[in-house]
Amino acid sequence: MGAEFRLLMLGAMYENGGNTTHRFLDGHPQMFVYPFESQIGTRMVSDALASMFPVKYRWPVFALDASPAEDYRAIIDEECKVRARTPNVSKFRHVPFEFSDDERLAHYQRYVATSGRSRAANVEAFFRATFDAWRDYRRTGRESVYVGYSPIVVVDAARILEDMPQAHVLHVVRNPWSAYADTKKRPVPLSLPHYLLAWTLNQYHALLHRERFPDRLHIVRAEDVMADAMKALGPLCQRLGLEAAESLRQPTWNGSPLQEIYPWGTIRRASPEANRATAAELSEAERGEIRSRAWQYLEVFDYKSFLAGLPAS
Question: Is 81 a residue whose pLDDT tops 80?
């Protein structure tokens, strides 16, 4: 417990390839990869960004006078708890998952009894307890890094990296046209202005914190993961002291190959062709509006010519 705990926390704006990247890392033999979005935020998160982003995706805040059990229950972790407690209503009900939330609580309390309560200790206990309670998890015996994913958590990158000296943050960015076209497919999508404000805030925080933590904040483009996940993610693994495993070539669930990423995310086929076809779904007016709102980041991430050659809508 403590200084030796190694966490790789992924973040990405909605529909930016965070779930896709998470699934490409899933089968790595040296990683404990969280099964779903690790929504570790609590309802006690209250700051200037709390009105912009759901608190379940944020780095948690715990009550000073809470017990370990109360801390655990404060962690929202909606996707995992729904799958564990009411599996028939979970969007992941089709995948095997032998897991007890109550058993995880027991493991969590055991860890915190040793470490004491703190934000870092609570998060560490949460991740360790998850894999203790996941009975059909396919272990290799070589795992040394825990991997979590929460959309937009890059806005809390400084807190993560300051709380956990061995932690790293990986931010995933996708071109804003394909990303917005995918978010439009949600039952209640964000408006274009709202979505692009949130998209730009994610890129702002990622670039800001990479300047502050150049060895521990990493950025990868979803387009590069889709084109060649081994080439895109292999160097990251090596920077973490891990191998560039062959598993990086295929998205998986608990090591089992996936033919499509959905329902882990809205991206079904993680390919450059599908990515460009998604951007082509937008009208000319939408494409222009997105360009005007995201302009300051298009050159930074080499997206200025992404629309070149796409048919007019």
Answer: yes
